[in-house]
Amino acid sequence: MIQRKTVTPERALVRAEELCVRAERSSGEIRRKLRLWGLTPQDSEKIIASLTERRFIDDRRFCEAFVRDKVNFARWGRRKIALALYEKGVDRSISTEVLAEIDTERYEENLRHILEQKRRSLPEADSYEGRTKLFRFAASRGFEPELIKKYL
After folding, report:
1. Of 3, 62, 92, 136, which has the fewest CB atoms closer than 10 Å, so is most exposed?
2. Mean per-residue pLDDT, 34-57
3. Within a domain: residue 83?
């Protein structure tokens, strides 16, 4: 087993600041890093509070950027985005609020686009099996079953 050096709280704060400067991070991600670095929960919470107070970490800002990226570029559905935010330690109340702000027209256009792309790759797209594959594909991308049925 590899023995890791524990990081001092002062050094951990500097490293966490550097992480936050490079990319938007959630408090859950930083908390996980601090645990990996061997910090106590008390030290971790002090560091998180300091980073939050100085706006290095803002879970709402992180959530908005993450959702915008996943909707506009990755074309994920709400369910997949919600699960990813949960895994990143974003509070459910924040993620629910931000997910509700997704532009419905853009969201449905994304679903239509991925269904059309997938349909072109399936030789039997109009058969029962083809529609089932399309449905599963869209569901795996995180779109809601009712919305998928609407566009199939």
Report:
1. 3
2. 95
3. yes
